[in-house]
Amino acid sequence: MTLLTYRKMAKQAEKLGLNRLVRLVGSWRGLLVLTYHRIGNAEQCEFDRGVYSTDEATFARQMEFIRRHFEVVSVDDVMRKPADHWKRRQAVLVTFDDGYIDNYEIAFPILKRLDIPALFFVTSGFIDQRSIAWWDEIAWMMRKQYAGVEEDQVDDAIVDVVEKFYEISASESEDYLNRVGDQAQTGRYQGASPVWMNWGMLREMAAAGMSFGGHTVSHPILTRTSTSNWEHELTEGRRRLEEELDVDVQVFSYPVGNPDCFSSDLKQQTAKHYQAAFSCYGGVNQGKAAGSWDRFDLRRWPVYGPMRQFRMTTTWPQLLN
Asked: Model pTM?
């Protein structure tokens, strides 16, 4: 199903009142895992606006919505219970990727107020080195190059450069970004990135009961890196989280998380260090007797769009499989 078709369905289902009717009887059973990246006002950002899941007010409404209509669970609940347990439930797990500062400044207070446990997959190198992520750097260069141009054109330029980045190997990435900076006449981004949390913020969140998972050291698309690099990315990111936060890190999420971003070999390597791993391409996880349940491909749905689209996602997640 295309995103455009999905958005049209969401609008029509809301108009006809189908979502509310279906929620009364329950259209699905299993574990729905939601993925967020950034929360806030994307229009004020000079970096990648595409990683904004929603704004503050809508995020609060979304959390209130799932708390009212579903069983909100923690990652510990997921790890403790067998797959068959989830085929009888409508459970929702909330997750965040990367380690953006608005996770602490905006999302964390809302989660605390509503008593919702969330799982944060943190890229340890972003916290340690304050380095800019490649997607944020590309967006920054394009916004500088096309300053004053219509926003749609800037977005198209960013998408074009990002899609070409996806086609190259990790070993070519620095040269590619250097060329983009030269062509944009901006050069590379200099200095520390202002968008990441720090360890003090993360420790406060851990003390309040939030959970944490590994998300590599440097956020490479692992299937495009040498297999000899996998061990470092899988273990060092986890080690830093455990060292700084005094937590036991048992779960991992594959950077980007599309089906081509992990493989059977990578899943086997990940299983040596984690109890489970999460992808990010939609769907609902069901118990073994009811459908799909792969402990090293626990599927997540990236949250984007207006509230009606969120209601559609949480009411009909089986359509996203």
From this structure: 0.91
